[in-house]
């Protein structure tokens, strides 16, 4: 079904969408690299040598917290209060959550690693669509990384969950964004992101078409089906 849609859109001379709502981390920003640098710094500060296994274990803890946040089960503050203490307790170590989080945040703010072809894609889309960033996270961090990357000039606006008072995939997040988006017809909007549970489900919650950027060949889910699926930003450029 996705392949058929892709082919039809390639052959269609008329552009369906005017407005792209694009996720940040895992879509155009290489968050895995940013996370690797930040967690490595935190581990070294606690006298622990970073290993792939430890980085994987932190990633799983962090993902659990963010998915709970997306469901509305915990607050944003509980993520930052809990993820590092939970991780380090697995190692038998008690840490100061605030100091550890601040050290990680400093590293994250300075990292603007991009997914391959991200800048080329943004430059290509800039003259063709109105592009907006939709992202969960801390406002200061996301804006700092966007500025460091040099990509900010391509986007009409940046919507961060901390500022919007809600988070993807909740409809309230998108409702808070819409007044600042020029296009008012949701049928002409496309959500682009790597997360099924955040970006794609968010589109389903708000009646907006979605494109899943599946860069890591994640398994599909029967309960969250995107309208389009691509496996690279180069493929996304062809789709659009």
List the topology elements:
Blueprint: H1 2-11, E1 19-22, H2 31-45, H3 52-71, H4 76-90, H5 97-110, H6 118-126, E2 130-135, H7 139-149, E3 157-160, H8 161-164, H9 171-177, E4 189-193, H10 196-206, E5 209-213, E6 228-230, H11 233-239
Parallel strand pairs: 1-2, 1-4, 2-3, 4-5, 5-6
Description:
With 240 residues, the chain is α/β, with parallel strands linked by helices. 51% of the residues lie in helices and 11% in strands. The chain is built from eleven helices and six strands. A six-stranded parallel beta sheet has the order 3-2-1-4-5-6, sandwiched between helices. Helix 4 packs across helix 5 (97-110). The longest helix has 20 residues, at 52-71. The two termini are 18 Å apart. Residues 1-13 have low confidence and may be disordered.
Q: What is the overall silhouette? A: globular
Average pLDDT reading: 92
The Cα radius of gyration reads 18 Å
Helix content: 40-55%
Biggest sheet, strands in spatial order?
3-2-1-4-5-6
**Oligomeric organization of the protein chains:** single chain
Distance between the first and last residues' Cα: 18 Å
Question: Which series of helices and strands comes N to C?
Answer: HEHHHHHEHEHHEHEEH
How many strands, which pairing sense, and closed or not: the largest β-sheet?
Answer: 6 strands, parallel
């Amino acid at each position: 079904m996705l392949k058929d849609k892709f082919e039809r859109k390639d052959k269609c001379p008329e552009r369906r969408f005017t407005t792209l709502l694009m996720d940040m981390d895992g879509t155009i920003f290489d968050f895995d690299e940013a996370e690797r640098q930040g967690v490595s710094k935190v581990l070294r500060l606690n006298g622990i040598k970073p290993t792939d296994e430890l980085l994987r274990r932190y990633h799983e803890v962090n993902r659990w917290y963010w998915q709970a946040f997306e469901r509305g089960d915990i607050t944003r503050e509980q993520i930052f209060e809990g993820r590092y203490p939970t991780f380090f307790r697995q190692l038998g170590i008690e840490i100061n959550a605030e100091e550890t989080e601040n050290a990680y945040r400093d590293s994250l703010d300075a990292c603007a690693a991009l997914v391959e072809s991200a800048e080329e894609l943004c430059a290509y889309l800039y003259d063709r669509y109105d592009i907006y960033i939709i992202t969960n996270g801390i406002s200061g961090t996301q804006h700092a990384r966007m500025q460091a990357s040099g990509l900010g000039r391509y986007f009409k606006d940046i919507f961060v969950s901390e500022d919007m008072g809600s988070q993807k995939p909740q409809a309230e997040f998108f409702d808070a964004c819409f007044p600042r988006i020029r296009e008012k017809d949701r049928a002409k909007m496309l959500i682009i992101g790597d997360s099924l549970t955040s970006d794609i489900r968010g589109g389903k919650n708000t009646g907006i078409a979605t494109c899943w950027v599946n860069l890591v060949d994640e398994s599909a889910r029967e309960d969250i089906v995107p309208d389009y699926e691509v496996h690279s930003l180069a493929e996304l450029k062809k789709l659009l």
